[in-house]
């Protein structure tokens, strides 16, 4: 009997997974809590646990914030099938194709713009969000070198930020809550500014104090800094932390004052998630470099983009290297680009704005009862994002299991139980997600109190 046959006979899919796969942010373990996905449609997942019990749950995660149009969306499905009938991939070195050109044109028509700022004009297609950040950081250093400032090779980042898991991206993530300590000596020593004040409590004095600290840091290190990098308005994996739009304007002003590029990471926030098409639009700010991903293909395929101004692109192209020094094998994958075009086509209708407002309102009302629960430190929403912040770290397996029992799929982290639902979620579905989250937190809190 061949090896594949032997594996199939060894046990359930979950058992086989535990024997051979390694999951994100998890140990290689034979006891890892897992649920098999048997199907997905709209905002619902059909799950089965290791004992064979089945559950239908509402996906409050949009599969890590990407499936904004829901599963098995007919427009995205059709786009993928059409492209498969032509070709699914071709190298992007020396070749081009319709889906990539159309995607670049669509992106440039929707990114932030202002009459007094250089326009975002060039799109570099990357494999994933982390890679787009890597490309953005490389580009900033190459720009400074081409401008005659080769010593500018460090970055000014915000504490609480998260920009990806590859090495350069990790180097601009929060140095305490990020993964720096696991890789001593391998990550670049960048400069970190204090996290901006929280939007819910920030005063004009708080913002001015933060501005002064940021200005001092930028001035002190300006001769070695290439760029400022930040997630505008909402820091995602760093804690679902919302801060005032005024702080994004301050980032722009300080970058300009010291000859730094401004990189805005909208991988999590782009395409409507915070209530504006891009989070930078809350502040009316145009970055020099913009990174997008996640929802770009509606969660169907991995694709991201680094978008920069024509000024930056021209400077680097005229520099000693004569090129941006990066080129992924699957850059501009036609299948991913075709689906991304369909996804952006849905976004372009403008329906996302009312969808996000509906989801946000349902999350705000549905999560409000969590404020009365023991162990809850805060409840907050922004756009189509809802957060229950606990006083202590989340018992992830317990909360996940309790949420599934209440008909909701969540993936908590740190001390947060949060939702980023698909935009197509109805008010009733979103309210059910929120109720399931509250019930899960209440159940685990009750069990913890009872065990004392």
Can you characterise this structure?
This protein is α/β, with parallel strands linked by helices. It has two domains: 13-62 and 351-450, Aspartate Aminotransferase, domain 1 (Alpha-Beta Complex); 78-349, Type I PLP-dependent aspartate aminotransferase-like (Major domain) (Aspartate Aminotransferase, domain 2), CATH 3.40.640. The protein has 14 helices and 16 strands. It has helices at 3-9, 13-20, 62-65, 74-86, 98-110, 129-146, 167-170, 204-221, 245-257, 310-317, 334-348, 351-367, 396-405, 427-450; strands at 36-41, 44-48, 54-59, 120-126, 154-158, 191-193, 225-230, 234-235, 241-242, 261-265, 289-292, 304-309, 376-382, 385-390, 408-409, 416-419. Strand 13 (376-382) and strand 14 form a beta hairpin. The termini are far apart. The model is unreliable at 1-9 (pLDDT under 50).
What's the tally of helices? Answer: 14
Q: What is the molecular shape?
A: globular
Please state the second-level CATH architecture of the largest domain: 3-Layer(aba) Sandwich
Mean pLDDT: 95
Structural class per helix/strand content?
Answer: alpha/beta
Order of helices and strands: HHEEEHHHEHEHEHEEEHEEEHHHEEHEEH
Residue stretches low in confidence (pLDDT < 50, at least 5 long) are 1-9
Spatial extent as radius of gyration:
22 Å
Q: State the helical fraction.
A: 25-40%
Function: Catalyzes the transfer of the alpha-amino group from S-adenosyl-L-methionine (SAM) to 7-keto-8-aminopelargonic acid (KAPA) to form 7,8-diaminopelargonic acid (DAPA). It is the only aminotransferase known to utilize SAM as an amino donor.
InterPro entries: Aminotrans_3, Aminotrans_3_PPA_site, BioA, PyrdxlP-dep_Trfase, PyrdxlP-dep_Trfase_major, PyrdxlP-dep_Trfase_small
EC number: 2.6.1.62
Organism: Arthrobacter cupressi
């Amino acid at each position: 009997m061949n090896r594949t046959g032997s594996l199939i006979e060894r046990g359930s899919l979950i058992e086989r997974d535990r024997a051979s796969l390694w999951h994100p942010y998890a140990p290689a373990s034979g006891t890892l809590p897992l649920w098999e996905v048997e199907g997905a449609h709209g905002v619902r997942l059909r799950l089965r646990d290791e004992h064979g019990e089945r559950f239908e749950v509402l996906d409050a995660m949009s599969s890590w914030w990407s499936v904004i149009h829901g599963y098995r969306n007919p427009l995205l499905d059709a786009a993928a099938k059409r492209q498969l009938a032509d070709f699914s991939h071709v190298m992007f070195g020396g070749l081009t194709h319709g889906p990539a050109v159309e995607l670049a044109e669509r992106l440039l028509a929707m990114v932030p713009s202002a009459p007094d700022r250089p326009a975002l004009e060039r799109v570099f297609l990357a494999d994933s969000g982390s890679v787009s950040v890597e490309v953005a950081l490389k580009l900033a250093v190459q720009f400074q070198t081409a401008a005659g400032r080769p010593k500018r090779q460090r970055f000014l980042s915000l504490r609480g930020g998260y920009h990806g898991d590859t090495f350069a991206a990790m180097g601009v993530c929060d140095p305490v809550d990020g993964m720096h300590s696991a890789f001593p000596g391998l990550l670049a020593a960048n400069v970190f500014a204090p996290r901006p004040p929280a939007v819910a409590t920030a005063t004009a004095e708080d913002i001015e104090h933060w501005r002064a600290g940021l200005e001092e840091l930028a001035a002190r290190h300006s001769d070695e800094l290439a760029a400022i990098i930040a997630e505008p308005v909402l820091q995602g994996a760093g804690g679902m932390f919302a801060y005032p739009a005024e702080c994004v304007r301050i980032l722009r002003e300080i970058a300009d004052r010291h000859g730094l590029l401004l990189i805005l990471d909208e991988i999590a926030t782009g395409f409507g998630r915070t209530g504006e098409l891009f989070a930078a639009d809350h502040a009316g700010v145009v970055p020099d470099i913009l990174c997008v991903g996640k929802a770009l293909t509606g969660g169907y395929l991995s694709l991201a983009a680094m978008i920069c101004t024509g000024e930056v692109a021209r400077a680097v192209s005229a520099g000693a290297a004569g090129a941006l020094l990066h080129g992924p094998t699957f850059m501009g994958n036609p299948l991913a680009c075709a689906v991304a075009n369909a996804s952006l086509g849905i976004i372009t209708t403008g329906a996302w704005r009312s969808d996000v407002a509906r989801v946000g309102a349902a999350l705000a009302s549905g999560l409000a009862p969590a404020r009365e629960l023991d162990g809850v430190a805060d409840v907050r929403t922004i756009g189509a994002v809802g957060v229950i912040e606990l006083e202590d770290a989340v018992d992830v397996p317990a909360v996940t299991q309790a949420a599934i029992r209440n008909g909701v799929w969540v993936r908590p982290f740190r001390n947060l139980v949060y939702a980023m639902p698909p935009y197509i979620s109805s008010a009733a579905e979103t309210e059910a997600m929120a109720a399931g989250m509250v019930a899960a937190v209440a159940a685990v809190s009750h069990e913890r109190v009872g065990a004392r």
